[in-house]
């Protein structure tokens, strides 16, 4: 069966510091991968998605970037965090075919102080 | 452009009451999927159901049921005999069918509180 992992689970970072959040999927190959952000008390906003290694599409211009160095690994990064980057970050995967259900990881709660 | 509207921000019921969560969507796609996810206090989004736009049959799973009406662009979710464990934020979402992006467009969520 497929499993999706995210780490760290929680993170408190000062403004201006770098960021690296990691997401890995097990039990599937060539998944579509997604990064979403959920601000406090709000819905989910798509940040990036990837249909393959090295293929990244950005949905919202911002302070963040994403990379996919391996088939089942998706990384969210920032060189300098802003207060507005605080939120709950969720990674999701779906198969590359017509199986359109997205399955989400446990999320990373990021607080920028 | 796609849009999902969940007009109910928060609903509070007493245990064993039935509750319906509303979802209205907008899309120009002729084929699409609709979803419901549950977000308990832990934060993880739990998949509940996927519905293909071609399939308007209602679905029942235990205490959960879903009413999909294409004519009114609605996909409502009913919990029968609610329990405290049903307390969570529920999200309705929409995605196009096909390859490529297929990202989800989420509604803003409905917070359900079930009081004992």
Primary descriptors:
heterodimer; A: 113 residues; mainly beta; seven-stranded mixed beta sheet; four-stranded antiparallel beta sheet; 57% strand; globular; B: 116 residues; 12 strands; 0% helix; 53% strand
Describe the structure.
The complex is a heterodimer of chains A (113) and B (116). Chain A is built from no helices and 11 strands. Chain A has strands at residues 3-7, 10-13, 19-26, 32-38, 44-52, 55-58, 65-70, 73-78, 87-94, 103-104, 108-112. In chain A, strand 9 (87-94) and strand 10 form a beta hairpin. Chain A is globular. The model of chain A has no long low-confidence stretch (mean pLDDT 91). In chain B, a hairpin with a 6-residue loop joins strand 5 and strand 6 (46-52). Chain B contains no helices and 12 strands. By secondary structure, chain B is mainly β. In chain B, the strands form 3 sheets. In chain B, strands 2, 5, 6, 10, 11 and 12 form a 6-stranded mixed sheet that branches. Chain B has strands at 3-5, 10-14, 19-21, 24-26, 32-39, 46-52, 59-61, 64-69, 74-79, 88-96, 105-106, 110-115. The mean pLDDT of chain B is 91.
Note the beta-strand portion of chain B: over 45%
Strand content of chain A: over 45%
H/E element sequence of chain B: EEEEEEEEEEEE
Helical proportion of chain A, percent range: under 10%
Poorly predicted spans of chain A: none
Cα shape of chain B = globular
Low-pLDDT runs of 5+ residues of chain B are none
Radius of gyration of chain B: 14 Å
Secondary structure tally: strands of chain A: 11
Give the CA-CA distance, first to last residue of chain B.
Answer: 41 Å
Estimated structural class of chain B: mainly beta
> How would you sum up the global shape of chain A?
globular
Helix content of chain B: under 10%
- Counting H and I runs of at least 4 residues, what is the number of helices of chain B? 0
- What is the number of beta strands of chain B? 12
């Amino acid at each position: 069966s497929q499993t999706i992992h995210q780490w760290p689970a929680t993170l408190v970072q000062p403004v201006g510091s770098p960021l690296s959040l990691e997401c890995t999927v097990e039990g599937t190959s060539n998944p579509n991968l997604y990064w979403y952000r959920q601000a406090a008390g709000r819905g989910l906003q798509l940040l990036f998605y990837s249909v393959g290694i090295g293929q990244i599409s950005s949905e919202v211009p911002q302070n963040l970037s994403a990379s996919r160095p391996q088939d089942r690994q998706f990384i969210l990064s920032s060189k300098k965090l802003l207060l507005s980057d605080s939120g709950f970050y969720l990674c999701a995967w779906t198969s590359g075919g017509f199986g359109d259900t997205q399955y989400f990881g446990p999320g990373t709660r990021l607080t920028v102080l | 452009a796609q849009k999902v509207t969940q007009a109910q921000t928060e609903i509070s019921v007493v245990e064993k009451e039935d509750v319906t969560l509303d979802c209205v969507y907008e899309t120009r796609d002729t084929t699409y999927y609709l979803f419901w996810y549950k977000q308990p206090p832990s934060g993880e989004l739990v998949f509940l159901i996927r519905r293909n736009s071609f399939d308007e049959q209602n679905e029942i799973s235990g205490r959960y049921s879903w009413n999909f009406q294409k004519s009114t662009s609605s996909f409502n979710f009913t919990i029968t005999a609610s329990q405290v464990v049903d307390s969570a934020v529920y999200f309705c979402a929409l995605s196009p069918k096909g390859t490529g992006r297929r990202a989800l467009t989420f509604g803003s969520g409905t917070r359900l509180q079930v009081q004992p």
